[in-house]
Amino acid sequence: MPLAPKEAVARPAGWKDWKWQQRHAVRTAGAIKEYFPGCPPEVLREIDAHASTRRFQVTPYYLSLIRTDGDRLRPLEDDPLWRQVCPSAPERADPYGYDGESENWELDEEMVTPVAQHKYGNRVIIRYSNICHAYCQFCYEALRTLERNSSKPSFERRHWLQTLDYLADHAEVEEVILSGGEPFMHSDEQLAGVLADLREVRPDLVVRIHTRSLTFNPFRITETLAQTLRAHEVQALGLHITHPNEITPAFVEALRRLQSAVPLVFSNVPLLRGVNACPETMRELSMCLYRLGVHAGYLYHFMPRSPKSELFWVPVDEGRRIVRSMKRHVSNPAVPEYVLPHPTGKYTVPLHDADEHPRHEMDPDGVRLLGFVNWRGEHVTYPDPE
């Protein structure tokens, strides 16, 4: 199992306390320079510029996994973990890129309460938190989490009561997904209260939680948290992960606690150029998770309305080749479903050219679009520039 080279370095008292990790998270260029004294000045300037309008935060734990030069004075520019959390140069002008206003996934008519989204018939997503342990520079929920002056509503009691009323009145909803941001930024007591409310209003609901705690701050997964999930019968947990270097002994310990409490743990992996967009890395990640008993869930194509599209974008055909290289070559339960997260709903990308869809077309500005039929039978398009 791959381990980052600094895994064995002596740690300060409190290192394994998740609240200590959050209190000591790096949030400024000056703090990065203290941790990496040789960090290039241009990177520090970019962090300062970024932090003036968007959130920047990395836990000491995650920083410790970043590969550095021989003297550990500077992070390696191409380190797959550093690329995810380090602000880079401003985004290029792109009609389908992140503009700080457009939404990837949440349509107004789907927001049945300020914190509840009902896109698919049998399930509702609850935006339980607008903050995270650390912040991915490619965040698919950037309008909610990265922007300091977000227009997205926070989770409040009045919004929650509205949501409970909606769930009570809509028997077609069979599953509730607690997502965010990071749901586990809430305390065990707060989480227990929300889960108890759900069970009181709809004891029949399947409850799922999405988290990136195991990669950013695995010490959050305490025995008390596991007991809370077990007591309220949480049935599934979606694990956000990007690279094999995120799988450490602390990750495995946290995973085992979750598996003792939650029947189904599956992976959610964003496809990112320079991080995991190659067959070898995806194969290694998928098999590492499979060995640990994590079911392969989704491989998400990069959402266009997300920051750093010029840094992380991967053509759809390249994603198809990566998944096709695994299909029938590694254990099938380890192969994720490759999907485009479109505003109208996820679309499973066919792996072979003989399929009727997708087909490319051009928009009036000469930008290549991928046309496909979504789960509703509607023809929709998705930006896929060459």
Automatic annotation (TrEMBL):
Top-level taxon of origin: Bacteria
Domain Radical SAM core, chain residue ranges per copy: 118-333
Keyword 4Fe-4S included in the entry's annotation: yes
Keywords: 4Fe-4S, Iron, Iron-sulfur, Metal-binding, Pyridoxal phosphate, S-adenosyl-L-methionine
InterPro entries: Aldolase_TIM, Lys_aminomutase/Glu_NH3_mut, rSAM, rSAM_sf
CDD domains cross-referenced by the UniProt entry: Radical_SAM
Keyword 4Fe-4S: yes
Cofactor (UniProt): pyridoxal 5'-phosphate
Family annotation (PANTHER family): L-LYSINE 2,3-AMINOMUTASE AQ_1632-RELATED (PTHR30538:SF0), LYSINE 2,3-AMINOMUTASE-RELATED (PTHR30538)
Protein name: Radical SAM protein
Species assigned in the record: Streptomyces mirabilis
